[in-house]
From TrEMBL, chain A:
Protein source organism: freshwater metagenome
Keyword annotations from UniProtKB, A to Z: ATP synthesis, CF(0), Hydrogen ion transport, Ion transport, Membrane, Transmembrane, Transmembrane helix, Transport
Topology term for the membrane: Multi-pass membrane protein
Protein name: Unannotated protein
Taxon lineage: unclassified sequences, metagenomes, ecological metagenomes
GO molecular function, one term: proton-transporting ATP synthase activity, rotational mechanism
Automatic annotation (TrEMBL), chain B:
Cross-referenced Gene3D superfamilies: F1F0 ATP synthase subunit B, membrane domain
Lineage: unclassified sequences, metagenomes, ecological metagenomes
Transmembrane intervals: 35-53
Any one GO molecular-function label of the UniProt entry: proton-transporting ATPase activity, rotational mechanism
Keyword terms: ATP synthesis, Cell membrane, CF(0), Coiled coil, Hydrogen ion transport, Ion transport, Membrane, Transmembrane, Transmembrane helix, Transport
GO cellular component terms, semicolon-separated: endomembrane system; proton-transporting ATP synthase complex
Cell compartment(s), UniProt: Endomembrane system; Membrane
Protein purpose: F(1)F(0) ATP synthase produces ATP from ADP in the presence of a proton or sodium gradient. F-type ATPases consist of two structural domains, F(1) containing the extramembraneous catalytic core and F(0) containing the membrane proton channel, linked together by a central stalk and a peripheral stalk. During catalysis, ATP synthesis in the catalytic domain of F(1) is coupled via a rotary mechanism of the central stalk subunits to proton translocation.
Name the record gives this protein: Unannotated protein
GO biological processes: proton motive force-driven ATP synthesis
Membrane association type: Single-pass membrane protein
Coiled-coil intervals: 71-134
Length: 275, 190
């Protein structure tokens, strides 16, 4: 349990039977004070624990892949094997799956997203770090914004402004009378809601997972008291915390995969009119 | 899009109202964090996309080519082996054919040689036989002649002694003797 959480959970003396109510963790566990701040132009940058973790993730990620692919051999060994596994997973499992051979061009884009998000999620269960970077809403929003600013211009560039919107708003094979209803729905769902759901899906999963683990961690701590019920409850909460942590590992990889797969699907839709 | 987020976060903050201390909503999107997020991605994308991933892409393509090349080389080697086998088989068939022709030829030659030798031997034998026969005939004629004369003389002598007359010069006697001899010859010839 991190220091913030101990503080958030009502202090070191807050236990069952001590006249202290259960200090359920809330939104405050996702708030971090600035370690330091600086100003660029008119924008003030607050460097928090999350920002520093993101920086570390970026450095670790780049170090690993630069090391793994520093001198690729025809017969791979060691780190190159692991890196290749990741590369082939993105290329064959996501890019080609969504776009076919054309997807090869977008492999670096998708690769960067997948591993950056996965590692950012993974930080949530790393001792002392213990906050998924992606549970800070601005980060998934930043990623979704990049995706949005990629596929929309790409679609306009590839299909032309008119056809791009025509294909999106008036999908073929629908009775003409339906277009009056369908076109606004398509517009809202693709242009307005899509980036929102894209970021919220990732954010909400990581947020909820972290909150769950935090709640059971706090419960484990809170229930330690001189009573049988308290001890049993504490042990049970601890077991659930461990189980949830295992479950989180799965969710972290899955959410990174979903985000990347959706990115590939959006790009694929921008390259060719849906039929 | 930003407006949507802003509106939503305000709404949630407003409804969440825990009172007391002002707590920014979890849905707030501070611009600095947004910018940092974007920079983080761009750095990862830029470095990996420029430095790491092209290398591995190249290596993977090279590996594919190597494997495909290996398969192609193996196919070529197999075709080459097949061609050699065909060639070998053709040569072998040719050799067999040639050997068989030579054998047939030899057979024919042998027959011819034997036939020739036989003919020659037969001719030589015939010659020898003819020479022997001729000699025998000559010898017989000579013997016959000498015998005839001696027998005539002996007969005349004998007759002279029997009759007591000299019949030597008598023409009649000579005729009688000739007749006798002719009879004798005839008997011999028969």
């Amino acid at each position: 349990m991190s220091a913030e959480l101990v503080l958030a959970s009502g202090g070191i003396d807050c236990h069952l039977m001590s006249g202290c109510g259960f200090p359920a963790p809330g939104a405050e566990i996702f708030q971090f004070d600035a370690v330091f701040s600086f100003t660029v132009g008119s924008l003030e940058f607050n460097i928090t624990k999350v920002t520093i973790l993101l920086f570390i993730v970026v450095v670790v990620l780049l170090s690993f892949f630069l090391y793994a692919f520093r001198k690729p051999q025809l017969v791979p060994r060691g780190a190159q094997n692991v890196g290749e596994l990741g590369y082939l997973f993105i290329r064959d499992g996501i890019a080609r799956e969504a776009m076919g051979k054309e997807g090869d061009k977008f492999v670096p884009f998708l690769f960067s997203f997948f591993f950056l998000i996965w590692m950012s999620n993974f930080v949530g269960i790393v001792p002392f770090a213990q906050i998924p970077i992606t549970s800070i809403f601005a980060i998934p929003v930043a990623f979704a914004l990049i995706v949005y600013l990629t596929w929309v211009p790409l679609g306009i560039y590839r299909q032309g402004f008119g056809p791009f919107f025509k294909n999106m708003l008036f999908p073929p094979g629908v009775p003409k009378a339906m277009y009056g209803l369908l076109a606004p729905i398509e517009f809202i769902s693709n242009i307005i809601v899509r980036p929102f759901t894209h970021s919220v899906r990732l954010f909400a999963n990581m947020f909820a997972g972290h909150l769950l683990i935090a709640s059971f961690s706090v419960a484990t701590f809170y229930l330690i008291s001189a009573s049988l019920i308290g001890i049993m409850g504490s042990v049970a909460s601890f077991a659930v915390t461990i189980a949830l942590t295992g479950f989180e590992i799965l969710i972290q990889a899955l959410q990174a995969y979903i985000f990347t797969l959706l990115t590939a699907v959006y790009i694929s839709g921008a390259l060719h009119a849906e039929h | 899009m930003m407006n949507v987020f802003a509106a939503l976060s305000t709404a949630i903050t407003a409804s969440g109202g825990e009172g007391g201390e002002e707590m920014p909503s979890v849905l707030a999107v501070p611009i600095d964090e947004l910018v940092i997020g974007i920079i983080a991605f761009l750095v990862v994308f830029g470095v990996l996309g420029k430095l790491a991933l092209p290398k591995i892409k190249e290596t993977l393509e090279e590996r594919t080519h190597t494997i495909e090349g290996g398969i192609k080389r193996a196919e070529e080697a197999q075709a080459e082996a097949q061609r050699s086998l065909d060639e070998y088989k053709t040569l072998l068939a040719q050799g067999r054919e040639e050997a068989s022709a030579i054998r047939t030829q030899a057979q024919a030659d042998r027959t011819a040689i034997i036939e020739e030798a036989r003919t020659e031997a037969r001719a030589a034998a015939a010659q020898v036989t003819a020479a022997a026969e001729a000699q025998m005939a000559a010898e017989r004629a000579q013997a016959t002649a000498s015998l005839t004369r001696q027998v005539g003389e002996m007969a005349v002598g004998l007759a002279g002694k029997v009759i007591g007359q000299a019949l030597t010069d008598d023409a009649r006697v000579r005729a009688t003797v000739d007749d006798f001899l002719a009879d004798l010859e005839q008997q011999a010839a028969r």
